[in-house]
């Protein structure tokens, strides 16, 4: 700690060290981990991002390089790596084909299948309202994290997801929506002191919210090493149960799996388990996501039949009603 920061530290009557109005946490890694766990995996937080988590913790706690430790903690969270979508450029640079010396020397075929309906358009329109879609995605991430962490039904997490979102830091408001409305933060396990009164946030400042574009179609280079562990992206299909969860609340990635070979500049061979023997083990880099920390308990992919094209067979759980034609056939 430099002299400038040291001058801001005070010691109270009980021997507790404070940095301005924030509690100084000693260099006890177990204690810091308990604080980070409570701020990230608690039922009242639901795996926030590193920026939101830092904004919440910095109001009460301080230690050297706290922001860096929070970012590292969130990046290595196994639940966050499996459920949160990437807001990055698609991986894999364009690989141009060599120009053949003679005509018809090389012949390539490409089959286009699975095209969506064109009369009324497709239901997949992520750019309809970017701001609303971003909020929906945050809420979906919260519900997935809650369902995976606490093994509960997603609908039981809806009130908690609403509370967590309204009580978490928003960059557009520069505070939590709850604080903007009531003038103070709602008390949770981390906010153990009595919330002080503040001036209610005025509507004029809300208009300063900035909209960001997530439609950058350019790609980014991404390189892995042999021996790295990566997550594998699987297809999202409506009405399909994956790992005990249905539809949008199913994990986006499975794994992690070990890279055994690099097949060209943008393809890698993975070490897949025996029950995935039917799946081709070479994948494009855009389907992979680096595992920053190999979890002790990985998601069991053997409980569901994965097709060679990384999709899932849709099976009805219960027949609730039948139409007239089905009744006549029986």
UniProtKB/TrEMBL annotation:
Metal-binding recorded as keyword: yes
GO molecular function: aspartic-type endopeptidase activity; DNA binding; DNA-directed DNA polymerase activity; metal ion binding; RNA-directed DNA polymerase activity
All residue ranges annotated as the Integrase catalytic domain in the record: 121-185
Biological process according to GO: DNA integration; DNA recombination; proteolysis
Stretches of the chain forming a coiled coil according to its record: none
Record keywords: Aspartyl protease, DNA integration, DNA recombination, DNA-binding, DNA-directed DNA polymerase, Hydrolase, Magnesium, Metal-binding, Nucleotidyltransferase, Protease, RNA-directed DNA polymerase, Transferase
PANTHER family from the UniProt entry: PROTEIN CBG26694, PROTEIN NYNRIN-LIKE
Protein known as: Integrase catalytic domain-containing protein
């Amino acid at each position: 700690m430099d002299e400038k920061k040291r001058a801001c530290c005070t010691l109270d009557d009980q021997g507790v060290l404070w940095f301005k109005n924030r509690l100084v946490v000693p260099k006890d890694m177990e204690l810091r981990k308990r604080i980070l766990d409570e701020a990230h995996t608690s039922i009242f937080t639901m795996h926030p991002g590193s920026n939101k988590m830092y904004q919440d913790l910095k109001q009460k706690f301080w230690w050297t390089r706290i922001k860096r430790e929070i970012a590292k903690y969130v990046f290595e969270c196994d639940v966050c790596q499996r459920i949160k979508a990437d807001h990055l450029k698609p991986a894999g640079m364009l690989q141009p084909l060599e120009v053949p010396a003679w005509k018809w020397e090389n012949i390539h075929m490409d089959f286009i299948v699975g095209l969506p309906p064109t009369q009324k358009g497709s239901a997949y329109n992520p750019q309809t309202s970017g701001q609303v879609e971003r909020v929906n995605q945050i809420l979906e991430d919260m519900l997935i994290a809650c369902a995976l962490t606490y093994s509960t039904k997603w609908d039981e997490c809806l009130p908690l997801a609403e509370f967590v979102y309204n009580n978490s830091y928003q960059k557009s408001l520069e505070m939590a929506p709850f604080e903007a409305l009531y003038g103070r933060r709602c008390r949770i396990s981390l906010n153990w002191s009595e919330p002080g009164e503040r001036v209610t946030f005025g509507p004029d400042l809300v208009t300063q919210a900035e909209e960001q574009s997530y439609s950058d179609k350019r790609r980014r280079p991404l390189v892995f090493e042999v021996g790295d562990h990566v997550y594998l992206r699987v297809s999202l299909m409506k009405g399909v149960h994956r790992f005990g969860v249905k539809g949008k609340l199913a994990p986006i990635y499975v794994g992690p799996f070990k890279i055994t070979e690099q097949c060209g500049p943008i393809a890698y061979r993975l070490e897949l388990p025996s029950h995935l023997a039917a799946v081709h083990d070479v994948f494009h880099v855009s389907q992979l996501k680096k595992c920053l920390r190999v979890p002790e308990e990985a998601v069991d992919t053997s409980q569901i039949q994965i097709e060679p094209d990384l999709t899932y067979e849709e099976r009805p759980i219960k027949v609730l009603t039948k139409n007239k034609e089905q009744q006549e056939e029986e």
